[in-house]
Design brief:
By secondary structure, the protein is an alpha+beta fold. It folds into two domains: 85 residues, DnaA, N-terminal domain (GMP Synthetase, Chain A, domain 3); 37 residues. It contains five helices and three strands, in the order H-E-E-H-E-H-H-H. Strand 1 and strand 2 form a beta hairpin. Helix 1 packs across helix 2 and helix 4 packs antiparallel against helix 5.
């Protein structure tokens, strides 16, 4: 348990140094979107994990300035790598879905009656055009299912 606690404290220290360094170079907005860790158990090599490709790219652009700011706290720092956080890589593949159009369920008669009643109430109100058009599409779609 002691080793885990020590590792957690070191991670907090690294994150604190990163946050301070990001603030020094004007990237405060990225503080909650970048995580730091030592790379390959070496205190001279750092790995920065960005939560999105855009943040990763921005960090790559500012890497020389960021290394300079980090070296004020860690004079032995040699390598800083920026990578996309693994959980995002896994999720990005799931975002690309094949288009499957599910057929909406048919509305019950009571729901259709309620929509028709609402349509009748607003059909002459020019301020309700968007709602009226949506209800028209809904009613038309439901009538083609029968």
């Amino acid at each position: 348990m002691g080793k885990t606690l020590q590792k957690a404290k070191e991670q907090l220290r690294l994150q604190s140094i990163l946050e301070e360094s990001l603030a020094q170079i004007g990237l405060e907005s990225l503080i909650n979107q970048v995580h730091a860790s030592e790379y390959k158990a070496s205190s001279t090599d750092w790995l920065l994990l960005a939560l999105s490709p855009a943040i990763s790219h921005r960090l790559q652009q500012k890497l020389p300035s960021l290394i300079g700011a980090l070296k004020k706290h860690l004079p032995d720092l040699q390598i800083v790598q920026v990578k996309l956080a693994p959980q995002l890589k896994a999720n990005s593949a799931s975002r690309v879905k094949t288009e499957s159009v599910a057929t909406p369920a048919e509305l019950p008669v009571s729901a259709m009656t309620a929509w028709q009643k609402l349509y009748e109430e607003i059909k002459d109100d020019p301020e309700q055009d968007a709602l009226r058009l949506a209800i028209e599409r809904l009613l038309a779609h439901q009538s083609t299912k029968k």
